[in-house]
Each structure stands twice: as C-alpha cells, then as structure tokens.
Amino acid sequence: MISINDLTFAYKKGEPVLSGLNLELRKGKIYGLLGLNGAGKTTLLNNIAGMLFPASGSCVVDGEETRDRTPDAMNSLFIVPEQFDLPKVTGQKYIELHIVFYPKFNNQQMEDILLEFEVDKTKKLPELSFGQRKKFFIAFAIATQTKLLIFDEPTNGLDIPSKSQFRRIISSLDTDSRCILISTHQVRDVGSMIEHILVLKDGSLIFNQPLEEISNRLTIQKIDMDSSDPYIYGEETLGGINAVVASNKEDIGEYDIELLFNSIIQRTEDINQQFEEN
Question: 105 has which bridge partners?
C-alpha cells in the first residue's frame, strides 16, 4: 500500500529532517505515528501525501509515486493537516464542490458523522469554531473512502467529548480496504485506536511494531519503590513505580501507551532488543 524507500528530506540547504527512512504500511491497519515535537512527523506525512518532495528516495502509494501528483495518486489519499483553511462557503457547498475528486465518496457516511459530531453543514464554514471546522473536515476525509487516510494531530483543537467521538468513529470504520495513519504527540488521545505503533525520533524511525507483538513482548507492572525486580523503564508514581518489563510470553501484557512511548524514547535499544529475541 505505502512503500517508503531510503527517503531523505531537508528544507533548502539545512540539515536533513528525514534521513534514509524506510517504511512499509499495509491496508487493513490503523497506524499510530508517534514522536516528540520536531521529530519530523509532519514532514514525513507531507512527503507521503505529495505535498513535499524528497531530496532522494521515494514514496509510493498504491503503485503511484506521490511526488508526481498524478490524478490516480491524489484521489487515492486524503490528508487532514493540523492547520488548514476552508473556503467561505457552507459545508454543503464544500461537499458539492469537492466530491467530484473522490469517486467513492459516501454521502450517507458524511451525514452520519456530521450528526455524531453535531456539525451543521448549512452554516458557512468560517462561521464555525475551529473545533467544529476540524470535525467537518475529519468527516469529509473519512467519507472520501480513499485507500490512504492521513491525520496530523487530529485531536488538537477538539474538546474532551469530541476527542471521544473521534476515537469512537475511527474505531468503528471498516479498514479492510484502506490504510489509516494517525500522527500525534498526544499519545493518550489515540492509544485505544491504533493497531501498529511507529515512533519517529530526530528524523529516524526508531520503533515499528504491531500492538499484538508489543503485548506479547512487553507488559506494565506496578513495582514497589524498594523492590529489586528488574525492569526496562520506570516512572515513579504514588506508592511505587510504573514499569515496562519483559513479558513472559505466556500472558498477553497490558500496556500504557504514554509509558510505552516514553520507554521507547528513553530506552530505544533496550526496548527494541525485546523484539529481537525469540
């Protein structure tokens, strides 16, 4: 579905933001692209979407190199950026103007999601709050039925109920024929949705594992402060340490997405080692 090969990107003559990155993404999965601010997440998404062009290497989506921006490439993907502008038209007019570019657009799904989000499509888009505009744009993105759907920081600007609605909507989608890539540094907002975790740090992919494998290899345990039990990474909390430990592979481990993310950032080599052992 998505094949990224030796992708390197730099802004003008600066240091590379992405360097020699390789990645394969498949249909039927919801991927979470996690990383600290400045890790290169948005730059990677824009290269995938054909909005930026790599200095070297390639990004191919469903057989089309996105830098060529062919009609087949562009109508096979949709990206919801963190910041965006919408025209001074009603939501209904926006739909009428843009569905022509997306042959599989699902009008009923659009209506259902707008109802869930409580967004009035008869109002002019600039009259809506930022959160309402974002929910409208998310609804449109989902309804395009593109093979690749990309979200960059989708929960920024949404209130707590809207974040819950977003998680519920994404989790309910039939993903058999599409790939969903969600990028965020707000890891708790997306943890319940994603099936495969990617972690980007300083322009390099430092972690790439499906959630099922993570659950088999790692677990979270509460350890007493004075305990001698070994752990890979831990954070002090009330009454002990929340620790990431190697799983015995007999029981599927629990996981805390934020703790796991912090452990990957802080103990990259030690965490990845758990996936190299048989």
Answer: none
Closest CA to 190 of 209, 210, 171, 217: 171
Q: Assess whether pLDDT exceeds 80 at residue 13.
A: no
In the numeric block, the tokens 């469903």 are attached to: 62
- What is the pLDDT, as a whole number, of residue 277? 65
Both structure tokens of 29:
């999965």
Distance of CA 109 to the CA centre of its chain: 21
pLDDT tens column, 217-250? 998 888 998 888 899 999 998 889 999 999 866 5
CA–CA distance, 185 with 170 (Å, rounded to integer): 18
Contact between 32 and 167 under an 8 Å Cβ cutoff? The reply is no
Query: Is the pTM higher than 0.85?
Result: yes
Helices (H) and strands (E) in the chain, counts: 10, 13
| Contact in structure between 50 and 74 (CB atoms under 8 Å) | yes
Does residue 203 come out as left (phi exceeding 0), alpha (psi in the -120 to 50 range) or beta? left
Pairwise CA distance, residues 119 & 111, whole Å = 10
What's the distance, CA 8 to chain centroid?
20
C-alpha distances out from residue 126 to 84, 92, 93, 141, 155, Å: 12, 13, 13, 18, 19
Order across the sheet with 240-246: list the strands: 218-223, 240-246, 233-237
| DSSP state letters, 118-137 | T--TTSBGGGS-HHHHHHHH
Give the whole-angstrom CA distance, residue 140 versus residue 106.
9
In this structure, what token pair is assigned to residue 172?
């309910």
Alpha carbon of residue 36 to chain centroid = 13
